[in-house]
From TrEMBL, chain A:
Its cofactor is thiamine diphosphate. Keywords: Oxidoreductase, Pyruvate, Thiamine pyrophosphate. It comes from Thermus filiformis. Pfam families: E1_dh. Gene3D superfamilies: 3.40.50.970. It is an enzyme of class 1 (oxidoreductase). This is Pyruvate dehydrogenase E1 component subunit alpha. GO terms for biological process: branched-chain amino acid catabolic process. NCBIfam families: PDH_E1_alph_x (TIGR03181). GO terms for molecular function: pyruvate dehydrogenase (acetyl-transferring) activity.
From TrEMBL, chain B:
Heterotetramer of two alpha and two beta chains. Directly associated with ODBA in the E1 complex. GO terms for molecular function: oxidoreductase activity. It comes from Thermus filiformis. The keyword Chaperone does not apply. Its cofactor is thiamine diphosphate. Residues 4-179 form the Transketolase-like pyrimidine-binding domain. Pfam families: Transket_pyr, Transketolase_C. InterPro entries: THDP-binding (IPR029061), Transketo_C/PFOR_II (IPR009014), Transketolase-like_Pyr-bd (IPR005475), Transketolase_C (IPR033248). This is 2-oxoisovalerate dehydrogenase. SUPFAM superfamilies: Thiamin diphosphate-binding fold (THDP-binding), TK C-terminal domain-like. Keywords: Oxidoreductase, Thiamine pyrophosphate.
Amino acid sequence: MKLKVVSYLDKGEFPLGEEEALALYRAMRRARFFDEKALTLQRQGRLGVYAPFMGQEAAQVGLALALKRTDWVVPSYRESALLLAHGLPIHTLLLYWRAHPAGWRFPEGVRAVNPYIPIATQIPQAVGLALAGRYRGEDWVVATSIGDGGTSEGDFHEGLNFAAVFNAPVVFLVQNNGYAISVPRAKQMRVDYIARRAEGYGIPGVVVDGNDAIAVYLEAKKAVARARKGEGPTLLEALTYRLAPHTTSDDPSRYRTREEEETWRRKDPLLRLRGALEERGLWDGEREKALLDELEEEFARELALADAAPEPRPEEIVEHVYKEMGPDQRRAWEVLRADA
Amino acid sequence: MRTLNLVQAVREALDLALAKDERVLVFGEDVGRLGGVFRVTEGLQEKYGEGRVFDTPLAESGILGLAIGLAMGGMRPVAEIQFAGFLYPALDQILSHLGRWRHRSRGRVGLPVVVRAPYGGGVHTPEQHADSPEAILAHTPGVKVVIPSSPERAKGLLLAAIEDEDPVFFLEAIKLYRGSRAEVPEGYYTLPLGKARVLREGGAATLVGYGGMVEVMLEAAEVAAREGVEVTVVDLETLVPLDEDTLLEAVRETGRAIVVYEAMRTGGFGAEIAARIAEGALDYLQAPVLRVAGWDAPYPPFSAVEHHYRPNAKRVLAALRQVLTH
């Protein structure tokens, strides 16, 4: 059976109200702004190793805006846009990428957990978190995200099977950007679409043009609604491309051609949505400039907050290992404190 | 007082925990309808329903991930892994997440998860059903490791583990499941984690062990006593956090120490005990610290000779002679 790739912008369709469309664009533009700033800060030595998401804003923001603030986000490490759009403050995210402990405790009001570094381990945990909501009589949905490479891991399969068996309210977003660092999709799997695997678990699978914010957003909304109604999980595959390196330590010229990158640059999700908005008279250069000024001001404010975080203390290393420090942590704490 | 075996004592603890706190969930492979392959959870699904006590798909990493997510969302999961040697597919969840979430979230995400698993040999289980991986778990920051040595201790320690705000591995010696009965108090009670117990006092040497090795140490102590040699026996009970004070005090009193564990000798938890003794009681020692442990080989699937792998009283007594004649 051939799977259909859901898309609207390519066909000149725009099945979205003005307010929602503008909210999508603003959140995507804000995310891109963060990504560019983060790369600059990293080059200045003011951020640690950073995993940019440039090019994947539609996939992440499209999902985030389909959620309520009471829903949970369980991200992997390339999901800064998803986190920002779900309400994580910029200064927290900066401190996270600065490897500063103050950025590792996400604020209580934000229903998102720290990004996962191991691959696919978040998938079964997202299922558990979703079931916890059901036990507690909450209607929260859990949105979790993974890349195409991650779907080769056992935990991806175990987690999707668990979600199906327990009918868990989870939306699994696969951002298929074509590469697991350097390994192309064709060397990762023999299926044409990852969403096709959904059938193997007995759940719905949907493929969207991941650079079409409207397509991601509308399909994510359907999946979230299904989950909230108790109709179980959905596997949502967004076809997209990472315009930047895997991390600031990576050199994509070793495995991708400039031509390929240029092709995808022309499909930049921001430009596509902006173009469609402009055609409809909903956006223009003036509004763009006003937004950028606003973002610049916000970022300066947030960066100042991040810079004001006190230096971490050496003894923080052994704090929060357990709720109550054990005798071994206590001894280490005394030594580290004396070192300070 | 009535007597229970370890299976019954653990079941009673689970029953009481399920009754006391509706956030407690019991799940794993075969724990629901069947009541577990050792029948530890027998009758619990009927009593508490399929929502509270349930079977999962056959996937250990999924089980651990599910437990972590449930705890993240405010539940108190008690997961069963059918045999401790089946924990290995779940090691990424354990090493990368279970013990690390509180630390990496700087205290926001604490995980009150209990993972129960039968461990150890001595009952002719099939291959790979008799492993003792406690050292791997104890080498994981952020988790606690508890190994009870009797039904009465198991009940109170498991209830304490379920009340604990951090992840606890609760390993149950298969040999003890139906191997002996003991008086177990009725009703809900907890025993403190992180406390070692001195079961017997004698001046000749100190035997240190836990779980299924405690009865082996006590048997050796009894034989030695008949020959006029009185030894101290320490049951660690909690490997992490370790009660170093009780351990060192017991060793300083006698000046001789033998550490008994059934996992493979090299890199086993007994090596950690020996190191702690070297760091904290060297000046008191009159003989080298000896280890009586499993041999440096996989637990043997060959039932006719497997009893040569697991330490017994005879091997403990041989070590005792060695430290006494040093």
